[in-house]
Amino acid sequence: GAPSAAAVAQLAPAAGEVEDATLHLPGVQGALRPWALVAVAFALLWLLTLAWAFSRRGGAREPSPAPSTGAIPNSDPRALRRALDHGDLAGVAETLCALAGVADFDALRVRLDDARQLQAVDALQRARWGAGDATDARSRLRDAFREGPRWRRSPDTRESLLPPLYPE
Questions:
Q1: Structure pTM?
Q2: What angle do CA 21, 24, 26 make, to 5 degrees?
Q3: CA distances for 62 relative to 28, 57, 96, angstroms
Q4: Residue 37 has pLDDT above 60, yes or no
């Protein structure tokens, strides 16, 4: 039902109780509401953030990975020695992947051609994940990679144990 006139009169504030929610600035015609100023401020902040994001996006790009043609990537071979001497095991793994021009450790294993290097890389993985000795892994890596990594010249053509995800 509809409220009675007496109930409406009780709920309505008196003329002197209502505060004006407008802001009067000198030199500005009309009244400004505070929420309008806040909305304009947030819009300007959003535009500044958007401009900053686009300026960062157009900057330096990530280098493209080395082609898998069997060519040795152009990288500093002394980086592995420095990583073995001063870096942690994760840094050694990242350096090896960078030397091979691959993104992950499995692709590194496919790319290596020497059995001693593969065994040293396996020892590194065991040491990284707690099932091996880090000191032993470092010494095996130093011995195996003393003359530099040996990469496969042709892509690995072994048949995979799994069928292709998207057959041709």
A1: 0.47
A2: 170
A3: 51, 11, 18
A4: yes
Residue 61: which region, alpha, beta or left (left: phi > 0; alpha: psi -120 to 50)?
A: beta
The number of beta carbons lying within 10 Å of the beta carbon of residue 32 is 13
> Is 100 a residue whose pLDDT tops 90?
no
The mean pLDDT value for 136-148 works out to 88
Q: How far apart are CA 145 and CA 113, in angstroms?
A: 12
Query: What Cα–Cα distance (Å) separates residue 120 from each residue in 15, 101, 141, 163?
Result: 87, 19, 5, 29
Alpha carbon distance 167, 151 (integer Å): 28
3-class DSSP string for 71-114: CCCCCCCHHHHHHHHHCCHHHHHHHHHHHHCCCCHHHHHHHECC
